[in-house]
Amino acid sequence: MTDHKPYMKPYEEEIKTFSWDISKNELGYKDGDVINIGEYCTDRICRMGKGEKLALIWEGYTGEEKRYTFNDMRQLTNSIAKYLTELGIKPGERVCLFMDKVPELYFGFLGVLKMGAIVQPLFSAFGPESLLTRLQDAGTSAIFTQKKHLPKVRNILKDLPGLNHIIVVDDDGVKPLREKETAFNMDKAERVDSFDIYPSKAETPSVLHYTSGTTGKPKGAQHVHYSLISQYMTAKYVLDIKDDDIYWCTADPGWVTGTSYGIIGAWSNGATQCVLDAGFKSESWYKFIEKHKISMWYSAPTAIRALMKDGTETAKKFDLSSLRHLASVGEPLNAEAVIWSKEAFGIMFHDTFWQTETGCIVVSNYPGMKIKPGSMGKPFPGIEVTVVDLKTSVPIEKKGVVGMIAIKPGWPSMIRTYWNNEITYKSKFQNGWYLCGDRASIDEEGYFWFVGRDDDVINTGGHLVGPFEIESALLEHPAVAESAAIGKPDPINMEVVKAFITLKPGFDQTKMLELEIMNFVRKKLSALAMPQEIEFVDTLPKTRSGKIMRRVLRAQEWGEEIGDISTLENDM
Ligand code: WT7
Whose CA is nearest to atom 19 of ligand 1? Predict the structure, then answer.
């Protein structure tokens, strides 16, 4: 058994001595060296003598299981890298992954990085319009997908002249592939033992993650290979993944948690991880933990609340004694859920806070540190985090006062820009701080308490959905004149989408129309973005300049004070 003393020293001690050099030294990296995430997660682990260790235990929704060692993963990621190179993909081009959580998604991610291209993972549940927006913005040249998602790609192909390669990973030859489509079967592909890995440097672009804002289209958060320095270290110190741990990160790599900790952080630490490619069900999750003896579990508040709803009795039906450390991310983890986890699993969930833009955990509860249920914990050593005044962006000295969460730029995994959108990227910095767009306060002991987002972005089950994208989709429906999308409170998902709609003349406010509009958005965007509720209204609250004031609708929905509405055009 491994010594279960946390890797990280007690917080107050660690914070005095920590420097990113610890990470660089452990990774054998010196400034100016070649650094390739694909190499660090596979070849390097094999060189350290762990080639025969299991890297991935994968289970599909039918119960099918696949296992891969680090050496298998090293060879298969080489096969993918070689395949892409032979297709003519050049370093720096964007290669999208549009798949369920199949092994090809994980190995594809590392394979793309190994040959120097930029990997763009997209959530497989996205509909054609969500997909199109992101592929167009990134100018993507190749996409990996599965047969079941192929129709969505075909549907938008005519609008993507630069998308030259559609790589189908599970083609069975039953229906002929079309122009630009090629089949690649990873498990049957020739295993490539040695591949000339692209000599990326610290600032070479690596991952492009699309994230939603209040206005405009989703933005491509662009990361670089140097992010590894933070992701490796935080996975080790916060998630505390040890050599004999079996780790399970429940996040989909379409979102940043699934890549920073579901791929990079885990495998650069040489961890064995499990993936369950199936929908959520309490019993199947518990069974998965029991079967694979999962010891370190990184999940999300929505999932924890759903488990909680099914009761402690359900958890007690399974042997979950392998669990030794639990962490959560994505939305506020309510105190009740933390306390419940102690009751159900004997240990508490550790809340962690970060964003697509930060690339790694920035505020967290650490193994061994006192947990105050409901608090996000303290800044990761090496990252300066505070709260600043909402107007002046000056750090707030007084304890307990709410401000905007702000980070001193310079931590290794900070995004380097938004793809083709340097202006928005620059707007995130004020007075020498990177502003997260979230409000919080800091207590006497330095613990952070989340208050809420500072913008109109909807957080549903830990997934950010931009109101603009939903409203644009709604406006494409023939009956819709104007629309506003906001988050409304939900006991499990924290928020779900609610849309306020004014109709064009000649359309009636019927239940049928409501359902039709909901479905319209689901098909175009995704189930996440689909309004769970539609309210037909005669007018929408607007500013004098005609901007819809979602804030007013949101306040109504949450029973909050409306605040300053002096710029409102019409009365509510
Ligand atoms: C936004 C970032 C980074 C992982 C997944 C989400 C919210 C994230 C917490 C937390 C309260 C949280 C914030 C943040 N958020 N973690 N522990 N407590 N809120 O990445 O899609 O970029 O979303 O999620 O609002 O800004 P993302």
Answer: 331
CB neighbour list of residue 370: distance below 8 Å, 6 or more residues apart: none
| Residue 499 alpha carbon to ligand 1 centre in Å | 23
Q: Tell me the pLDDT of the chain (572 aa) as tens digits.
A: 445 799 999 999 999 999 999 999 999 999 999 999 999 999 999 999 999 999 999 999 999 999 999 999 999 999 999 999 999 999 999 999 999 999 999 999 999 999 999 999 999 999 999 999 999 999 999 999 999 999 999 999 999 999 999 999 999 999 999 999 999 999 999 999 999 999 999 999 999 999 988 777 899 999 999 999 999 999 999 999 999 999 999 999 999 999 999 999 999 999 999 999 999 999 999 999 999 999 999 999 999 999 999 999 999 999 999 999 999 999 999 999 999 999 999 999 999 999 999 999 999 999 999 999 999 999 999 999 999 999 999 999 999 999 999 999 999 999 999 999 999 999 999 999 999 999 999 999 999 999 999 999 999 999 999 999 999 999 999 999 999 999 999 999 999 999 999 999 999 999 999 999 999 999 999 999 999 999 999 999 988 777 888 989 999 998 887 665 554 544 43
Handedness of CA 188, 194, 196, 200 (dihedral sign): positive
- What pairing do the DSSP bridges indicate for beta strands 142-145 and 94-98? parallel
Q: How many CA atoms lie within 13 A of 37 on its CB side?
A: 37
Global model pTM greater than 0.90 = yes
Q: Which of 353, 378, 441, 463 to mutate to test the pocket of ligand 1 (most atoms within 8 A of CB)?
A: 353
Instruction: Name the DSSP class of 542.
Output: B
Q: Whose alpha carbon is nearest atom 2 of ligand 1? A: 355
Q: Are strands 118-121 and 94-98 parallel, antiparallel or unpaired?
A: parallel
Q: Which CATH class is domain 11-438?
A: alpha beta
**CATH no. for 458-558:** 3.30.300.30
Please report, for the chain, the start and end positions of each structural domain, with discontinuous segments joined by +. 11-438, 458-558
Whole-number Å distance between alpha carbons of 185 and 322: 35
Q: Which helix (H) or strand (E) holds 472?
A: helix 467-475
End-to-end CA distance of the chain: 64
Q: What is the CA radius of gyration of the chain?
A: 23
359 and 261 Cβ atoms separated by less than 8 Å: no
